[in-house]
């Protein structure tokens, strides 16, 4: 079996998957592993509530089980890491969640990290998760841009709000590294980093980078 990492977008918005695929381009290399991005057709247009997070777990499990035999590692490309532990329990391949990987990467790039969320109601869910990860003492803050997943395609509005929010996290909250809190923001990483002058972590890139290391080093 040739090595392949399957990156799954748990929402049904193809534009988000295209953005994720473009963000993964820099991580594709001769000799692999191959990086393939797919959309969960059964998912909602955006995974924005706890109910939506819970609702995609079953379809995600089915998709992962269906692809386990010809896949070396899986990446769940949603910042809520839906079904992460259930899927890890169900399959023998490495399974990585972009929130966990994005935050762990940020901890290596700065002392305090800030998170740019899409919606204010996302923050409580993210805070519960960061509390479980034990990283709250390294969190500078999390702020929303006030846009849903399907609105992120409006580049001028989205990027303007991300810059404004990133500056507040940097200058007011004291963040010296930023994590983008939605896979749908993937295309904005480099311009946002250039604008803010501090590292910006795109969490799917972080997860795929870790998955490549797992596959190439044989860390099952």
Q: What keywords describe this structure?
A:
2 domains, Rossmann fold, globular, 45% helix, alpha/beta, 9 helices, four-stranded parallel beta sheet
Description:
This protein has 220 residues and is of the alpha/beta class. It folds into 2 domains: 4-98 and 205-217, Rossmann fold (3-Layer(aba) Sandwich); 100-202, Rossmann fold. The protein is built from 9 helices and 8 strands. The strands form 2 sheets. The protein has a 4-stranded parallel sheet with strand order 2-1-3-4, sandwiched between helices. Strands 6-5-7-8 form a 4-stranded parallel sheet, sandwiched between helices. Strand 3 (73-76), helix 4 and strand 4 (95-97) form a beta-alpha-beta unit.
How many structurally independent domains? Answer: 2
Examine the coordinates and then state which fold CATH places here, giving the name of the CATH topology of the largest domain.
Rossmann fold
| Helix-strand pattern | EHEHHEHEHEHEHEHEH
**Helical region count?**
9
Report the span from N to C terminus.
15 Å
Regions with pLDDT < 50 over 5+ consecutive residues? none
The amount of helix comes to 40-55%
User: What is the general shape?
Assistant: globular
Rg of Cα set: 16 Å
Mean pLDDT equals 95
Main sheet strand line-up: 2-1-3-4
